């Protein structure tokens, strides 16, 4: 976790200040910061209260694992939940905001997953 040694956490290595402000403004203007955090509170911090957390997923599933994702799970745990993992990719860089940090890397992985599903 090399970002801890950075003065600003390394934010400006991945994002421009304009990108960060735009992202914050979307949450601010739409008044959705609280509701976006609700997913984490109800689904991750207290999974015992969520029926969805107990359900298995049987559709073809692609999983992209980014090295700086703080909420990642071991593959064995994911296989318990997702019964049909057709693509499991460990990517070389990126984190929780992969679509902003590494859009091309994420897009290539998504296209590879869709291509794989279309061939079946």
Describe the structure.
The structure is a single chain. The chain contains seven helices and two strands. It starts with 10 loop residues before the first helix and ends with a helix. It is mainly alpha-helical. The longest helix has 17 residues, at 103-119. Strands 1-2 form a two-stranded parallel ribbon. The protein folds into two domains: 15-55, no CATH class; 56-120, no CATH class. The chain has helices at 11-14, 17-29, 33-45, 51-54, 75-81, 98-101, 103-119; strands at residues 61-65, 85-90.
| Sequence of strands across the biggest β-sheet | 1-2
From N to C, what is the helix and strand string? Answer: HHHHEHEHH
Q: Residue ranges: pLDDT <50 for 5 or more in a row?
A: none
Count of DSSP E strands?
A: 2
Structural class computed from helices and strand pairing: mainly alpha
Query: Quick check: average pLDDT?
Result: 87
Distance between the first and last residues' Cα = 39 Å
User: Any idea what the radius of gyration is?
Assistant: 17 Å
Secondary structure elements and their pairing?
Elements: H1 11-14, H2 17-29, H3 33-45, H4 51-54, E1 61-65, H5 75-81, E2 85-90, H6 98-101, H7 103-119
Parallel strand pairs: 1-2
